[in-house]
Amino acid sequence: MALLNILRYPDPRLYKRAAPVLEVDESVRALVRNMAETMYAAPGMGLAATQVDVHQRLIVIDASESRNELLVLINPEIVSSEGVQYREEGCLSVPGIYEPVERAERVTVRALGLDGGSFTIVAEELLAVCIQHEMDHLEGKIFVDYLSRLKQQRIKAKLQKQLRKTA
Ligand code: GNR
Ligand code: NI
Q1: Each residue of 51-99: pLDDT tens digit?
Q2: Which of 8, 84, 134, 155 is the most exposed place for a label (fewest CB within 10 A)?
Q3: CATH of span 12-166
Q4: Could you tell me if 39 and 127 are in contact, meaning their C-beta atoms sit under 8 angstroms apart?
Q5: Residue 61 Cα to ligand 2 middle (Å)
Q6: Is there a contact between 59 and 134 (Cβ–Cβ < 8 Å)?
Q7: Any residues with Cβ below 6 Å from ligand 1, and which?
Q8: Where do the domains of the chain lie?
């Protein structure tokens, strides 16, 4: 097991689009184990492969309070979505920044699991937000992209200042 390095906004690698996973093999399962370990250690509610500089369509999520409901989504697709919700989001790639974003209230998602089989889930509330946030990462999109230019500039400046302090 290993902890993976999480890319920080505005790293240009966060803007790459991920390619589909062609086969759920042992290397994919090993990567998922390391991503889950990295997410739990952070701690975070989700992690997309893009954030650890692997540009494949893979997500791990645990939106449970008890932190024991790992959801692995490989090649996820939103089949349908309904409603809107507006919730504060954060991101492990944008540490210390929390801003509200508009998302669908409920999503039906089809994906492959670790066994390579296809399944469908219906998610709402926070889990639905988390899935949409992670799927955006696979498209090279970060939640700050939804904010005003002014807010984006302020966030960049704040993170660059943090980076200089820890360098
Ligand atoms: O840890 C995380 N918390 C969170 C809170 C509200 C909406 C989305 C998230 S996902 C985030 C982890 C992360 O950066 N995933 O990409
Ligand atoms: Ni994120």
Answers
A1: 999 999 999 999 999 999 999 999 999 999 999 999 999 999 999 999 9
A2: 84
A3: 3.90.45.10
A4: no
A5: 11
A6: yes
A7: 44-48, 51, 89-93, 129-130, 133-134, 137
A8: 12-166
